[in-house]
Amino acid sequence: MSTATQTNPDALAQRLADSGLRSTPQRELIYRVLLDKRDHPTADQVFTRVKAELPGISLATVYNCLETLVQCGLVKQVNLEREPTRYCPNLHPHAHFHDERTGATHDIDLPPGIFSELRAVLPPGYEAAGVEITFRGSAVADAHPASVQ
Ligand SMILES: [Zn+2]
C-alpha cells in the first residue's frame, strides 16, 4: 500500500493550518515517527523514538503534540482495556486486532460498507460519532497470518 500521499509533509502543515495550528518541528517529527512504524505505539514509545532525533524533547511535549494530531484528525487514538492509549495514523476505516500473546496491535481491513451497516442497527434517534472494532486473540500457531504493517 502506498503511503506517498500521507507522508507528504505539506499534508501535515495543511491539516494543522486548517485547524488553526502551526506546523512545528516537534509536531512534524512525531507525525513522521507514527507514519514510519505503524505498530500503534503508546505515548511512551513515541517519546523513546523521537528522543533519538530530538534529545531535548519532553514527554509532556510528546503528549501535547499527539493530542494536537488527534484533534486535527491526522491520528486516531486506539483505546484497549487496561492498556495505555495507542496512536494510529491510518485514517481509512479499519478494525484493530490486539494480539494478547505478543501485545501487538495490527490494522485489519474491513469489507466496504460494514460501518454503515453497523450504524444502521442503532435505534432511531441515535447517531454514532464513531464506531470502533477491536478483535482480541492471538495468531494461530501453524497459520501464516496475512502480512500486516
Ligand atoms: Zn490502526
Please describe what this structure looks like.
Helices cover 38% and strands 14% of the residues. With 149 residues, the chain is α+β, with helices and mostly antiparallel strands. The chain has two domains: 83 residues, Arc Repressor Mutant, subunit A; 46 residues, Dna Ligase, domain 1, CATH 3.30.1490. The strands form two sheets. The protein has a three-stranded mixed sheet, with no helix packed on it. A two-stranded antiparallel ribbon has the order 1-2. The structure holds zinc ion. The site of zinc ion has 6 residues, from strand 3.
Produce the secondary structure layout:
Layout: H1 4-7, H2 9-18, H3 25-36, H4 43-53, H5 59-71, E1 76-78, E2 86-88, E3 94-99, E4 105-109, H6 114-120, E5 134-137
Parallel strand pairs: 3-5
Antiparallel strand pairs: 1-2, 3-4
Helix pairs in contact: 3-4, 3-5, 4-5
Primary descriptors:
149 residues, alpha+beta, Arc Repressor Mutant, subunit A, Dna Ligase, domain 1, 2 domains, three-stranded mixed β-sheet, two-stranded antiparallel sheet, 6 helices, globular, disordered N terminus
